[in-house]
Amino acid sequence: MKSLISQDKPVERLIIFILGLLIMSLGIVLVITANLGSAPWDILNIGLHIQFGLTIGS
């Protein structure tokens, strides 16, 4: 079975990886902003924002 992303194209793989991270970050920010709750790992980001003023997603 042929994979969707070739192993010999590291730049393409990196771009897809970063795009995936951006999409996941956007989803997390939208869930937190909509006050729908947050996952346990997202609490770390919220705590860093409260304690140090770091923005979520930056």
UniProtKB/TrEMBL annotation:
Keywords of this entry: Membrane, Transmembrane, Transmembrane helix
Transmembrane feature ranges: 14-34
PANTHER family in the cross-refs: INTEGRAL MEMBRANE PROTEIN, INTEGRAL MEMBRANE PROTEIN-RELATED
Annotated protein name in UniProt: Uncharacterized protein
Species assigned in the record: Niallia hominis
